[in-house]
TrEMBL record:
Signal peptide: none annotated. Belongs to the intradiol ring-cleavage dioxygenase family. It is an enzyme of class 1 (oxidoreductase). NCBIfam families: protocat_alph (TIGR02423). GO terms for molecular function: protocatechuate 3,4-dioxygenase activity. Keywords: Dioxygenase, Oxidoreductase. Residues 52-80 form the Intradiol ring-cleavage dioxygenases domain. InterPro entries: Intradiol_dOase_C, Intradiol_dOase_core, Intradiol_RC_Dioxygenase, Protocat_dOase_a. Its EC number is 1.13.11.3. This is Protocatechuate 3,4-dioxygenase subunit alpha.
Amino acid sequence: MSRELLPETPSQTAGPYVHIGLALKVAGNPTREQEIWNQMARPDAPGEHITLIGRVFDGNGFLVRDSFLELWQANHEGVYDCEYNLEKPFNGFARTATTFDAGSEWTVETIKPGVVKSAAGVPMAPHVNVSLFARGINIQLQTRLYFDDEAEANAVDPVLNLIEQPERRETLIARRCEVDGKTAYRFDIRIQGEGETVFFDF
């Protein structure tokens, strides 16, 4: 009896179904009562409250208005908590998406993470892990967001120092600013082309 080899099922790029299932408000659908979205920290969460904000650009420099992002970070003491519970003041996981309005920005309300100890005990600078899903991408892109006012910690961060070119490291640095009178950090992601964001193969 002969055996027929089955071809690999092709990957599907992130399209409208990501937003329909996971970004209901952005897709124009009613939201669920319990939703994982862009608020990591409630007002009573300990730590320095900040807003993360950014845009996503394609290789031609055009805004990607339908990208979807997931972010994961430690708390203000540098500790990751893997248990997600909407009743807690802080959860280290969030989802967000760019929008179809003029600015096409994504935002996340969170607290600034603390210094994280790696599995080997090496301190890592405060950072946020970012996964990007967008059209034309078969597998999500992984990157990190660091803070420009943590220069001393950034200088010795083991992951940042894996990047040999200093100018490429700059693509992972979020810039401090203000949004509506509150502390914010801007982090724009460039998928390809000039100033392309560094992505990691985790």
